[in-house]
UniProtKB/TrEMBL annotation:
It holds the Pfam family Methyltransf_33. Residues 8-19 have a biased composition (Basic and acidic residues). Residues 21-32 have a biased composition (Polar residues). The keyword Transferase applies. Residues 1-32 are annotated as: Disordered. This is Histidine N-alpha-methyltransferase. InterPro entries: EgtD_Methyltrsf_superfamily, MeTrfase_dom, SAM-dependent_MTases_sf. It comes from Geodia barretti.
Length: 271
């Protein structure tokens, strides 16, 4: 594994990958490091953004902290427990759709690179990755996540199972850092797990979509998982599971903030 911490090194590593391809998209085993990780933002910059967002959220009439800040390594483990709960229907539905449609998606979009925003464990992405091999569309997967440890672990698991796959992890916040990603031909941007539903208003959601549109160019595609209308009781059950995984996950951000100068008590927040 290579850990790349600046853009010059990232571009040098990318040239190695392109040289290995020899102009051929057909997957084949690689001899160079299969996992490369680049920081899109520095830890200090990310921490400053988080503190600014939290200050703003705690001044609102309905106090609120953005959910993305829960996803450190421990938070990501908690989220994996959530999607394993029987009440969490989005994961089941997405897996069924991807199992049936991944090859069609890859043939339709024909990307040179698959970019996943908020990749986490990348388990749900395996259908698309396997479709890369079947369709010969590409062999480059770029997961973007705020946790470097999560990207490393997911990348190692993927390259053990797919020895032809090149993983180029990007550590950062896709709300801010999309423009820092180096372009590598046609790109398929993928967003799963009802991420777009985490925004608190239609305006915020549309702003996020505009940010993606701003970095997309001719030949790029966007794949989004969006929940359909459900009875309120179904949604409430999904996010208040009996095992309590959701409650622990929602309060995870307090532990992260308290590592710094914050002194936030769980008693003042609802999980």
């Amino acid at each position: 594994m290579e850990i790349i911490t600046n853009r010059d090194q990232q571009e040098t590593a990318q040239k190695k990958v392109e040289k290995l391809s020899n102009g051929n998209n057909s997957p084949s085993p690689l001899t160079a490091p299969q996992i490369q990780v680049c920081e899109l933002t520095t830890p200090h910059e990310f921490r400053q953004r988080m503190e600014d967002d939290v200050r703003y959220g705690l001044t609102l009439p309905q106090r609120w902290i953005p959910s993305k800040y829960r996803y450190d390594e421990e938070g990501s483990v908690l989220f994996e427990r959530i999607i394993e709960q029987p009440e969490y229907y989005p994961a089941v539905a997405e897996n069924e759709i991807l199992a049936a449609q991944s090859e069609n998606i890859m043939r339709l979009t024909n990307p040179d690179e698959l970019i996943e925003l908020g990749s986490g464990s990348s388990k749900k992405t395996r259908g698309l990755i396997e479709a890369m091999l079947v369709t010969g569309s590409c062999r480059r997967y770029t997961p973007i996540d705020i946790s470097e440890g999560v990207i490393r672990e997911a990348g190692e698991a993927l390259t053990r199972d797919y020895d032809w796959l090149q993983v180029q992890g990007q550590v950062g916040d896709y709300d801010h850092d999309l423009g820092r990603i180096r372009r590598n031909g046609r790109r398929l941007f993928a967003i799963f797990g009802t991420t777009v539903c985490n925004y608190t208003s239609k305006a915020e959601c549309m702003e996020f979509v505009k940010k993606i549109k701003a970095v997309m160019t001719k030949g790029d595609s966007l794949l989004v998982g969006i929940d359909l209308l459900k009875d309120v009781s179904v949604i409430e059950s999904c996010y208040t599971d009996q095992a309590g995984a959701n409650a622990r996950f929602k309060l995870r951000v307090l532990d992260i903030l308290n590592r710094g100068s914050a002194r936030l008590s769980e008693a003042g927040f609802q999980g």
